[in-house]
Structure formats: C-alpha cells, structure tokens
Amino acid sequence: MITHFQFKPLFKQANLPGWQISFYFNGTHYDGLYHKTGQIEWGTTAPPKEEENSIHSKIHELMLFHVYD
User: Fold this and answer.
1) Residue 18: CB partners within 8 Å, gap ≥ 6?
2) Considering the entire predicted model, what is its pTM?
3) CA nearest neighbour of 35 among 54, 9, 69
4) Residue range 5-48, pLDDT digits in tens
5) Cα angle: 14, vertex 22, 10; to 5 degrees
C-alpha cells in the first residue's frame, strides 16, 4: 500500500509538466521524478522489480486524480 504520497511541480510555472514525487511503500521511502509521459525516474531507491509495475500503476492513478483531474 502506498502511503504519505506527495508531489510538487518541478518548475514554478504550473504549465510545464514534471513533478517530484515521494511516498512510502511497505515501510520503504521512495522518491523520483514523474514525467508528463507517465515515466517515473526513480531517485535514490528504486522499488524491487517484481513490485515496480504495480507501484507504477498506482502512482499513475494518483497523479491522474490529483494533477489531471
């Protein structure tokens, strides 16, 4: 389960896409960049390969709800 999800724009101009994201998943902190294409560039810690697709899908849903709504 994803908890403490946060995002903020990379640029002061809101019309330029790109966001910093951070969250916890199973007690581990993750951060990265969410690009307008939906691609996630992981920061210091990348999720395990077997969980990456699931996490990516959940993050995409959260971003659609919060940013593109």
Assistant:
1) 9, 10, 11, 33, 34, 35, 36
2) 0.85
3) 9
4) 999 988 887 667 789 999 999 999 999 999 988 899 999 999 99
5) 25
Number of compact structural domains in the chain:
1
Pairing of strands 19-25, 2-9: antiparallel
Least Cα distance to 58 among 7, 11, 5 occurs for 5
Domain residues for the domain of 11 are 2-66
**9 HSE (CA, 13 A, CB side):** 9
pLDDT at 69: 60
Q: What number of residues does the chain have?
A: 69
Instruction: Please state, in angstroms and rounded to a whole number, the distance separating the CA atoms of residues 58 and 64.
Output: 10
**Unique residue bearing structure tokens 């960049």:** 33
